[in-house]
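Archive record:
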Amino acid sequence: MVKLAFVVTVMLLCGCAQHPAQSPADTTPKVAATPCPSARPQMCMMIYDPVCAIHEDGSHSTEGNNCSACQKEAITAYASGPCPEAAD
């Protein structure tokens, strides 16, 4: 009986160790960003497929598509879809 209690206790402790509590900063969803190519595009199709552009300074802006976003030197990467709106 003691062995069973020991095994159950160890299993419970191991389960808690695998799921650490998240801090508020960790709850922000991470977006997979695609880096812009080093050879910037010269011309882009006018197709509206919005992306969230990531600027060198860490700011974000919604651009019409990935090509038009990467034409701008200040933009380093982009993620599919428009940028989420800032919380008030």
User: Anything to note?
Assistant: The beta strands are 34-35, 51-55, 60-63, 75-80.
